[in-house]
Specification:
alpha+beta, Alpha-D-Glucose-1,6-Bisphosphate, Chain A, domain 4
Length: about 150
């Protein structure tokens, strides 16, 4: 059995996508679009009309297991960065974070980095096994699916 010391608590994946940052960001900032590119196969659906515009907003998402999550936006720069902390409805976020960062290379290419950070999850949290299973490869799958969506149009 591995200890938390043996597991990366901040994992990320990054790649260049052949699309402008604004187009990519629209797919990330609109929760209704997220199940289309989720490489964790964890997201089932989100109500339309929740496009994120600022820190402090909360959007809801239903997981493939039927659980509703309230996602608290904690970082936001239009077209460049968005991060949120998921929580059970009506609860404070327990301490994990999903982040997307977009770095335009030019008008038709963008470096996209997806990060999962669970350094603030309490040791006893029931989410630890799932957090430990979130590997760079799973994040890479999300980035790859996102790339396929925007490059395939």
């Amino acid at each position: 059995m591995t200890s938390d010391d043996d597991v990366q608590q901040v994992v990320s994946a990054s790649r260049e996508i052949a699309s402008g940052a604004a187009r990519i960001f629209e797919l990330i900032a609109d929760p209704a679009q997220q199940p289309r590119w989720d490489g964790n196969d964890n997201l089932a659906e989100a109500p339309v009309g929740q496009r994120v515009h600022s820190v402090g907003e909360v959007f809801t998402m239903t997981t493939t297991k039927g659980n509703v999550r309230e996602n608290h936006v904690v970082e936001f720069v239009e077209g460049r960065r968005i991060a949120w902390r998921p929580a059970e409805p009506g609860q404070a976020p327990p301490g994990h974070l999903w982040r997307w960062e977009l770095e335009p290379i030019d008008s038709s290419r963008t470096r996209v980095t997806h990060t999962y950070d669970w350094t603030q999850l309490p040791d006893h949290d029931k989410r630890i096994p799932r957090a430990r299973a979130t590997t760079p490869e799973r994040l890479e799958a999300s980035v790859d699916r996102l790339a396929a969506l925007v490059e395939g149009d």
